[in-house]
Design brief:
Chain lengths: 386, 187
């Protein structure tokens, strides 16, 4: 058998492998059957059937071509064994043919095509819709979905605790400022201080600052109370991300810090000696003592000083109550004007009531939405890059 | 026509550039015999994270200048009917037995006797691995060979090899037998 013969046969077959008569049916087959091929280590039993079908297809195509061109099987056999057929440059061309004999080659070919098609589909969906629908950005499989859920919750908790911390810090800062400024009033007019404060409880002198104190305390308090509301909000808004978690986290940590300050004014009407309000009263007294600039603890002060301090404390409580009421009044009017969405149960208890829940929620919701958007972006990136 | 097709496919193998001799080995046995563990052990891979095989695994191991393509097919009862599909063109059969699973010696013997009667495995050498010898309750290889009636095989080479796929003990001995046998046969 002449060498040229083999060369001619090989070249003609290579030509056939580049022609649509070969490429179209083979491509069709690969694209239709590749969906079951994943990148798992283990092979599915169904791969074998697909491989068998592929063998049949390739054989049929080659046979048809050989018949058409007039290559005998013997000629083909000789051509295949010729050194020319084994040159490196031809190996890649023969790959789809060799895949009939080599399952692992076939498998990687199919798995690669499957991956390509998946990426193409993702790109297409993205182009068409602007972004990927949630069902595609959420979990690639159950495991990662659960991990993502966990990540979401974790991030939310972190965010919450950060917010709380910041709020607490700003609250402390502002109340610190307030205390500082009031005490400076007291210390610059040590003689008049008491008389003046008794005579004219003129809080307008420092409206912005004291209002701020109330403001921050209020918002914190509101947040605590508005939590259940926002929790409900979360449940109703399709994503079920930890509706239990966030309220628990925030309320438990906030109540312990915030409530004493909030409840103190409530108990101002009771006698100081009353055992129930002892703690609250002591806080007030302590505060008053600090404001007045006494360095010794309350119990070590003289009677007149104690009296003075108690008066001062009462005054402070009074002031706070007034501001509180004023603030509440403002909120109530605000709310009434804005369709009065306050739950009726809250208005029943006037001191603990109206909150601008609407605003709070919307702000929180906005934050949440932003977070979700960010997550979705991240997921998209990961999925596509994969 | 059928013959012509077979010829064409066998030719395609020759298109491969490599001159390395390729050997097709099928690894069978009951579920939990340790086939996949043995496969990993052959390929010097981690044997600690193996789950029951639902499909099949393939590893190519280079040994004695040959490329051994080892096919490990799941051994669960519902998969066993599929074994037949993988027997064609097989150069060697490895059959794995859990030496400590005395209750199923009969079952595994039946499966093996069915296999050696398969047309496509006619004359194909069989290596039986008496696996899990690291377990105290394991039966010795000689006892298992007797139970399987290996000595009655007249139409093929056979060998029984005690081993522990987990520790790797005895695995290399089995490999050596495989390589010697294949080279002898192909010469």
């Amino acid at each position: 058998m002449a060498e040229e013969d083999s060369e001619w046969i090989i070249e003609s077959i290579v030509g056939f492998l580049g022609s649509p008569e070969w490429l179209i049916p083979v491509m069709d087959f690969v694209e239709n059957k590749c969906t079951v091929f994943d990148d798992e280590d283990e092979n599915k039993l169904s791969y074998t059937d697909v491989h068998q079908q592929y063998k049949t297809l390739v054989e049929k195509l080659l046979e048809n071509y050989m018949q058409e061109v007039g290559i005998s099987e013997q000629q083909f056999l000789d051509a295949c064994t010729s050194p020319f057929a084994k040159s490196k440059s031809l190996q890649s061309v023969f790959q789809p043919v060799l895949a009939t004999d080599d399952f692992q080659m076939f498998r990687s070919l199919m798995a690669q095509k499957n991956m390509e098609l998946q990426l193409q589909a993702l790109r297409l969906i993205k182009e068409r819709n602007g972004e990927l629908p949630e069902c595609l950005t959420d979990g690639v499989d159950v495991m990662t979905e659960m991990q993502q859920q966990e990540m979401k919750i974790l991030q939310e908790v972190l965010q919450k605790s950060k917010e709380e911390y910041e709020e607490e810090m700003s609250r402390r800062l502002m109340s610190g400022e307030d205390v500082g400024s009031t005490s400076s009033v007291c210390s610059t007019h040590p003689t008049e201080g008491r008389a003046e404060s008794n005579k004219s409880p003129d809080h307008t002198a420092k409206p912005p600052l004291s209002l701020q104190v109330n403001d921050s305390a209020d918002t914190v308090e509101e947040r605590v109370r508005s939590e259940p509301g926002s929790g409900r909000e979360e449940v109703s808004s399709k994503s079920q991300e930890s509706p239990k978690l966030s309220p628990v986290v925030s309320s438990s940590s906030m109540e312990s810090r915030v409530l004493p300050a909030v409840t103190a004014p409530l108990k101002s009407s009771q006698p100081i000696s009353s055992s129930i309000s002892q703690a609250a009263a002591e806080t007030c007294l302590e505060e008053a003592r600090r404001e007045a600039g006494f360095s010794k603890p309350f119990t070590e002060l003289s009677v007149s000083q104690q009296e003075q301090l108690q008066q001062r404390a009462a005054y402070l409580r009074q002031q706070r109550d007034k501001l509180h009421a004023l603030k509440k009044e403002q909120q109530r009017t605000k709310q009434n004007s804005s369709a009065g969405e306050a739950p009726p149960t809250l208005t029943a208890a006037p001191t603990k009531s109206p909150v601008n829940t609407v605003q709070e929620i919307s702000a929180e919701e906005r934050k949440k939405l932003q977070k979700r958007k960010h997550l979705a972006d991240k997921l998209k990136e990961e999925v596509i890059r994969k | 026509m059928g013959e012509a097709q077979k010829g064409l496919l066998s030719v395609i193998e020759k298109l491969k550039g490599s001159t390395e001799q390729e050997v097709r080995i099928v690894l069978l046995g009951l579920d939990n015999a340790g086939k996949t563990t043995l496969l990993r052990s052959l390929a010097s891979e981690d044997v600690n994270t193996i789950t029951p095989t639902q499909g099949f695994n393939i590893k190519s191991v280079a040994s004695h200048g040959m490329k051994l393509n080892v096919w490990d097919i799941g051994g669960q009862r519902k998969i066993r009917p599929f074994w037949k599909k993988y027997l064609e063109n097989t150069d060697l059969l490895i059959y794995v037995i859990d030496s400590a699973d005395k209750k199923r010696f009969e079952e595994t013997g039946l499966e093996l006797s069915e296999l050696v009667e398969e047309e496509s495995l006619k004359g194909v050498p069989v290596l039986v691995f008496a696996n899990k010898q690291d377990l105290a309750t394991a039966s010795p290889a000689s006892e298992i060979a007797e139970g399987l009636n290996l000595h009655t095989y007249r139409d093929r080479e056979w060998q029984i090899q005690a081993c522990s796929a987990v520790s790797g003990e005895g695995v290399q001995d089995g490999m050596n037998w495989i390589c010697n046998n294949i080279t002898n046969k192909k010469k």
